[in-house]
Amino acid sequence: MDRPLLMALVVAFLLILLALMFFGWRRRQRSQAGIPRPHTLPDDLEAASLSLSGFYVATTVAGEPLNRIAVAGLGYRARATVGVHAAGLALAIPGQAPIFIPATDIRSVQKATWTIDRAVEQGGLILVRWALGNAGADQLEVESYLRFGDDSEALFESVQELHATSQPSSATQAGGRAQ
Questions:
Q1: The dihedral formed by the CA atoms of 75, 80, 81 and 82, expressed in degrees to the nearest 10
Q2: How far, in Å, CA of 77 to CA of 93, rounded?
Q3: Chain segment 42-55, per-residue pLDDT in tens
Q4: Is domain 50-166 classified as CATH 1.10.10.10?
Q5: CB of 143 within 8 A of CB of 59?
Q6: What's the pLDDT at 113?
Q7: CA-based nearest residue to 142, from 54, 81, 84, 71
Q8: Is the dihedral of CA 103, 67, 70, 14 positive or negative?
Q9: Among 10, 66, 99, 108, which residue's beta carbon has the most beta carbons within 10 A?
Q10: Is 104 exposed, middle or buried (0-12, 13-18, 19+ CB in 10 A)?
């Protein structure tokens, strides 16, 4: 086989792979069309107590770290700015509408080491588990992964505090009275 023919076969194979990846991504977006959209920023949002720039890594279905959410601007890793407000988290990804995660929708905050297409040092990712969509039956629990380098600890502590202050006390949840 001569060199130009071999080169043409390799290029054709690569083009077919790119086309398959494109159509696979579009299929994932269509299959996830029923997933609720994230909240937009409220008009009356107060100033952020903490605002940091870093990386938005991914959002996956809760408990399924390889099942990426591919809709509503959540599908692509990008630089991002996160603002911690008394009412929740604001996530601004360039080229996308800002996303707002109400404090009452945050289920937990943890440190993680890996998610889809990303592995880092021990505890290098901040995992925020939250409910996507409006309260009720249409909510889907998801996990968003953030990477903020040297600022990770400050963001982690701020989001933990936000989560703790937005949850009712355990005595009230159990039906008893808080004393």
A1: 40
A2: 9
A3: 888 888 889 999 99
A4: no
A5: yes
A6: 82
A7: 71
A8: positive
A9: 99
A10: middle
Q: What size, in residues, is the chain?
A: 179
Which sequence spans correspond to the domains of the chain? 1-31, 50-166
- Distance CA(133)–CA(37), nearest Å, equals 6
Classified as helix, coil or strand, 52 is: strand
- CA dist 151 and 54 (Å) reads 8
Question: What does the alpha-carbon distance between residue 151 and residue 82 come to, in Å, rounded to a whole number?
Answer: 11
Q: List the structure tokens of 22.
A: 């494109």
- 44: three-class secondary structure by DSSP: coil
Q: pTM for this one?
A: 0.78
Give the pair of three-digit tokens for residue 45. Answer: 């949002």
What token pair was written down for 133? 């969509």
**Separation of alpha carbons 66 and 74, rounded Å:** 14
| Residue 173 burial (C-beta neighbours within 10 Å; 0-12, 13-18, 19+) | exposed
